[in-house]
Sequence to fold (249 residues):
Amino acid sequence: MSADIMLVWGKRKRLILVAALAVGAALTWYLANYVSLEALIAQEEQVREAIDRRPWRSFAVGLVIYSVVSLVPGTSGKSIVFAWLFGFWLGLALIILGLTTAAMVIFNLSRYVFHGWIKYRYERFLKGLDRHLHREGAFYLLTMRMAHFPFTIVNLVSGASGVRAHTFCWTTCVGLVPGSAVFAYVGTRLPSLNELCTHGVGSLLDKPLIAALAASAAFPFVFRFVARKLGLLKDKDGGPDSLATDQST
Fold:
């Protein structure tokens, strides 16, 4: 890929960043000036009532929203929000299906649209991934998912690799279950806005919630530590660990 193309891509990334900051500032201003806590509480209650009245229709709408939002990097907190609204089991199902759907979209875009750019951008990681896939097969993809390596990057690089689509799909679906279950549990332990307004921040001081938050933060690191000790994530010439040292990513 030429330097001119990389320059254009760098300008696009800066424009996207500026646009995102502008949207965030506008949203913050709007919420501060036009949205009251009472209105938010009323809207939350309406959403919960709608979910109770039509759970499957609400689930379908939530799944579409979650899948679309999952295409945007850096939106992991949505899992807690959706479980907060839908409960543990429906929330967990929505999270897994939504993430898998988004992963497959990015995977296919990488494979059939951005294949050349991905091979250039993540060359070292791609070589390491192909090497591990040849040696360990689907188990390696499963390990990366459970270790919570960057969701979007794994999707992009997997699409440019030689992995089969159905293998990528089921390893994504299964590998995301442990971490997603922890996030879903965190969501179910959060108080409603009405409870938060009535009892204050003290309603957040819930021992199971604190334990779940600690587990959600520690799980990826513990799993990576164990996986490295077992030799599953070691690769001097590429692979997931190279993401931490590759200055181009």
In short: Confidence is low (pLDDT under 50) at residues 242-249. The CA atoms of residues 83 and 91 lie 4 Å apart. The first helix runs from residue 3 to 34.
